[in-house]
Every structure is written in C-alpha cells, then in structure tokens.
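Reviewer has doubts. Consider these tokens.
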Amino acid sequence: MYDRHGASSEVLRVEDVERPEPGPGEVRVKIEYSGVNPTDWKSRGGSTPRPIDRFQIPHHDGAGVIDAVGDGVDPGRVGQRVWTWLAAAGRPWGTAAEWTVVAARKAVPLPDGISTELGASLGVPAMTAHRCLFADGGDSPVQDQTILVAGGAGAVGHFAIELAKFFGARVITTVSGPEKAELARKAGADLVVNYREASALDEISAAGPVDRVIEVALGANLRLDLAVLRPLGQIVTYAAEPADPALPVRACMNANAILRFVLLYGVPADALERAARDITTALARRALTELPVHKFALDDIAAAQDAVQAGAVGKVLVTPAT
C-alpha cells in the first residue's frame, strides 16, 4: 500500500490492515494473482495522481475466488473463480493484497480451463484493447477490416491482435525485434513488421490500406499511420508519450483521418460491461492467450512496479497470498 505519491522504494510498503467486508452489491475476492500495469506506477509515482483516502492498495487487475458477498448479490457466487477490472478506481482496495472488495459486476467469472494467470492479465489491457476496437459502436465494427496494431508484443497490443482476429479482422502489427515478432505471430497477427526497418512503410502499404490503427506512440508513429491509412480511417491512441506530439494538421486533413483518444477511466459503464462480456466470451472460446509471465512476491511489489516501468516484455504479476 501507499499513502503518498513517490518512488516505489520510498512509498510502497507491506502492512496488515483489517480484512475488508463486502457492502451491498459487492463481493470479496481472495486474490491469487495481481496484475501490474503502467497506470499503476504512474498513479503511485504522481505523474497521474489520484486522491488518497488514508491509504491506497494498488493495482486494478487480479484473479482469484469470491469468498464473501454483500446484500443483493447471489450467495451462489461464493467459490466462483473470477477476474477483476478497475478494482482500485475511486476506492482503496486494489488487488495487491490477499483480499479485495469490488462491485459484483467487476468480478467476472473465469471460464473453465482458463488459468488464473491469464485472468489476472486481462482487466486494463484487454478492456483498453476492446475499447480501441469498439469505441464507434456496432456489433462487430472491425469485421473484414484491416487493423494496424502498433506494439503488438505489449499487453494492450497482444489483446488487440487477438480480439481483432476473434471479431473477424485482418491484423498487421509493428514490433521492434525478433523476440517481440514471435510473440505477435503467436497472438495471430497476419503480418508482423519491424518498424525500425527502412522497408516498414512499403510492407504495410502493400498489405493495406489500413482501416484502423491502434496506437501506443502517436507522436512517433503518426506520419507512418497517416501514410497507410485509408480515407476516413481511424487512429485510436491509448497512451501518452512524455512530450505531447505536434499535430501535422495538413497531413491529417489530406488523409481525412479520424483521431480518437481512449482512457479507460472515462469510458461509459455500459461499454466497460460489454467489454467484460466480450472478453469472457473470447476466453471461453480459447481466443485469448497468456503473454510470458514474470511473478513477484508481495514483498517485492516495488520491484514488480519498477519492472513494468522499465518496459518488461510480457506480463508482471504479484502473488499476494501467504
């Protein structure tokens, strides 16, 4: 937990607190794995600070078993394996603890045969990927489209590839090297391009035009995106770079491009709940897979957050159980 913003080694600590009890419409989840995302270290570090009421247990994502329910929740949910989303949004009980309490809708049943590690890897990245694909509505807006996923070996990129394929799209992705290229291929990308190669633009153009770009680095990649985008195509960005990019207005006009920005905290509740349903359906059909996992004990939570901040390839999980 932490009670002030700052460096991981300075503010994060492991401490015993009273076990939370679920209120009306809530469930308590005994956490097996807690998933770490960039938003977690940014909130803790103060670059995207959020109010702290006494203390904050970090991390939104996790997976485990419901062991108690509040009034108005089906008692039959006790014993159910679940994955969580936005557990720490506006409340102190994140998933980096033995127990967390969330609204019942934020504890989503895990289909049989799906690992707890994969469940804990969903949440922020999978729901962000879904929003990037579905923000303009429709039952399957990407069916038969060509989607370019920038950074296909990252967690959002990984699930964007798999969800886009599940909903009928053709997927091109960019990566920075052979190890990441192999991860993107395993996720099902139809074409994997090393963006550092001089031939990147020609390779993507030959497979295009692109209907939608899911972008992790708008400033760095915008000119490439505009060059391969079809008229009225969309560029959907979900990450902020250290410096705001300069927008080439004329080039955007020439491309008749649509720019869309996604931040999960502001997405309407019904869209988030649809994302959770669609993700669970994809899980049940074995359309979503694990990234390489790096596990840390709760006592090493500072190292876990630092690993994500340093750009660890794969998914970082914390194991709170003692």
